[in-house]
Predict the 3D structure of the following.
Amino acid sequence: MPSGSIYVPQDEKFTGASPQNLYVTFWYAGRKNRLRVRAAIAVGGFVVGNLLAVRFGLAAFTTGLVLAAAAALTDFLIAWRSYERTAVWRGKRRGEVRTGRLLRRGLRKYGYRVMDGRAVPGEASIDHLVIGPGGLWIVDNEAWAPDTIIARYGERLFFDEKFGTSAAKGLINAASSMATLLSRETGIDVRISPVLAVHSGKIVGGDGIWGWGGTITGEGLTVAYPRRIARWIRSQDDAELTDDQIELLARTAARILRRMS
C-alpha cells in the first residue's frame, strides 16, 4: 500500500484513503489483467484437452472446450475466494456472525453448544463460548490486512513484526476468568482454551513453514481460519464431559454470563 515518503511525491489519489479503499481500488484496476490471464489459462486448457482427446480417442473440440471452461472457472473461483476472504477486513461482513454460523454448522450435530456474545460481569467479553464433549473454548474474531503474516517461531506468536503477546494475554485472561466462574458455580473443574479466528491475513506454520491446516498454537493461544476451527475443536480432548455436565455448564453460562448486544 502507498505510504508517505520525503523522497516520493504524494499522489493526491491516495491522500486520506484507507487501506481497505485502496485494496478495493487496486482490485478493480487489476480486472483487465486477471481477464487476460484467465483467457491464457483457458487457451492452455483447450490445448491440453485436444492432446488428451487424441491420446484417448475423444472428440477433440468438445474435450478442449470442457477443459478450457474448467480451467477458467477454477481461476475465477480462486480469485473470487481471495477477494471474499477480505470481506470482514473491508467492513462488508461481521466476523462474529460468520464464525458463529460456521461453528454451529460444524459442531452442533456432535453434541456441542455454541453461545454468542458473552461476558464475565465487569470483566472480559468474548464472541463465542463453545461447550462440548471435548471441553470448553472461547473464540474471538479479528481481521488484518490480507498481506499480514501470522506466524509462530518457537513458542512465540507474531503478527507481521509485532509480538502476539498482547492478543494472547487478553484471550488467556478471558478464558481463565470464565473457567473460574463456571467451575465455582457448577462444581465441575473446567479449563477453557482460547482461540482467535482470523479473517484475512496469512497463517504460517511453525518456524516459518507454510501450514496446510490453517491453524497454529503458541503462547497458550490457537490462531486459525474460521473454517478450520470446528474441525480443530472436534479433534481436541481437553476433557471428557457427559451430556448432563454439558447441559449444566450451558445453562449456568446462560444464567451468569452477561449477554453482549
Summary: The mean pLDDT is 88. Residues 31-56 form the longest helix (26 residues). The longest strand covers residues 135-143.
